[in-house]
Write a structure and sequence with these properties.
The chain has two domains: 68-318, Thrombin, subunit H, CATH 2.40.10.120; 334-480, Pdz3 Domain. The protein is of the alpha+beta class. The chain contains 13 helices and 18 strands.
Length: 481
Amino acid sequence: MIMSSFWKKVGIGAVVGITFGVLAAFTFAGVTRTINRFFPDNAKTSARIETDKDDEEDRSGSESKAKEDTKESGGEKKTVETTLTKAVDETPAGSGSGDMSVTELVKNNLPAVVSITNTSVTQLRDMWGNGIREYENVSRGSGIIIGQTDEELLIATNNHVVNGASSITVGFVDSEIYDASIKGQDSDLDLAVIGVKVSDVKSSTLDEIKVAVIGDSDKLQVGEQVVAIGNAIGYGQSVTTGIVSALDRDVPDDDEEIGYIQTDAAINPGNSGGALFNMKGELVGINAAKIMSTYVEGMGYAIPVNAANETIENLMNRKSRDKVDEDKAGYLGITGVSVDAQTSTMYGIPEGIYLQEVTEDGPADNAGIHKGDIIKKFDGVSVTSIAELRNKLDYYEAGEEVDLVISRQEDGEYKEKTVTVTLATRKDSGVDSIDEKGSPNGEKENSNGSEESNRNNEEEMQDYYNSLPDELKEFFFGFGR
């Protein structure tokens, strides 16, 4: 009886224990489910870390495939017009969705930005009639890789970065440097495209670089964060960050109504032609200028990429020009004097090249250009010095037709007109674009120091003086009288 009662109690205890365990299990499961429902992040912490890693691997794979696709598509671009690589993300800018950290953005986009070195020659006429002195100038800027074909890497920059260059070199992210040539220039928008021959570039460099992805500058919002990358002060590629301070800004002393992006990201000399990225890593602007004043700091400007797209696509599809042999180079048959910005402002004369002499039956004369005209543009590009014009002629063959914009004084004011000139060889033109020693008649100066030489110099100087308009006579010679 006692044993029976004992086992009965044991059985009841076991049943109660099992029942309690089952109830506890169900209760724990219910509580856990409720917690997960209200606090989902706690439940997915490990999954999120894993997803971030997977996304990083996927992104890396996508970048690798994009690079391969870019190389494979190069052959197709040879038969069709080259276009810019534009972003397809429809997410509004400034939303924060898909934004990168600055570090990630720089890592992804530094390979798309290059440094540019412009070597030019400045020619200055000795006011005492001793000919022309030449000085070599070196300036530096930045550029952005915007396309690649089977034959060329295409780089966008500011026109003032490459204008007047006798030679151009480009430095890539791997520090390799290659020669480049100008494909096209637009002085009005201050844009240019240069090309580097793919055949000249090492495979290791091609593996390192990338083509920039073009964003939508119309989506930018004031206050949105941006990153500027460029060759600041010629030190090499550097990065600055800031915000969009204003949109659709006019730049002082700029006649074009572009509507610049204003940013407080530092844009110093050398940054011109560099890239302004949004935080998705998309190119939204081409850095163009910085106001430097005792009273104004932190005002940088960039050309909105939407305002530049059409011009850049036009320039990148032009023929690349290399220097032609001297005996094939085109000439205009003129002798002139430079009118720079200072002279233009002081005396109301248009900037350009004032023509002291136009050779009879030469290319310029046959096109209707007269003595006293001022050449303002050559093939769509502004020219403000004889050195610039002479340099450009080195890239054009005799027989080519080129449009020149000239200013001609009519009824007391200068009016612009466009004329088409068929270039001739130096032999056919009868006179060089400028003579070697600065003599207005195109002949070399006799420098033997004889009395006859001195007398010839005086006569040439008098002829040169007489050929100038009154304003230039006062500017160049008034202080010596």
